[in-house]
Design brief:
With 69 residues, the chain is mostly beta strands. Helix content is 0%, strand content 29%. The chain has one domain. The chain is built from no helices and four strands. Strand 1 and strand 2 form a beta hairpin. It is globular and about 40 Å long.
Length: 69
């Protein structure tokens, strides 16, 4: 989930609907998505990209913040 409406802007990752315990803050005002694979048989599927009316109301206690610099 990318939240461009708050300061600092944030990115949170959900895997199979579960919020992961690390997030990024201070991201730039324009972003692109890239995927890196170690092996030829790996794959990624983007299920959806959509604009949410409000951020997902979920938190992880003790989540680690990674600051974009």
């Amino acid at each position: 989930e990318v939240n461009m409406d708050i300061v600092p802007r944030t990115v949170r990752l959900f895997i199979n609907g579960v919020l992961q315990p690390v997030y990024m803050s201070g991201i730039p005002d324009s972003i692109q998505f890239y995927f890196f694979f170690n092996y030829s048989e790996e794959s990624v599927t983007v299920l959806s990209l959509k604009r949410l009316s409000s951020p997902t109301d979920a938190t992880v206690i003790g989540a680690k913040e990674v600051k974009w610099e």
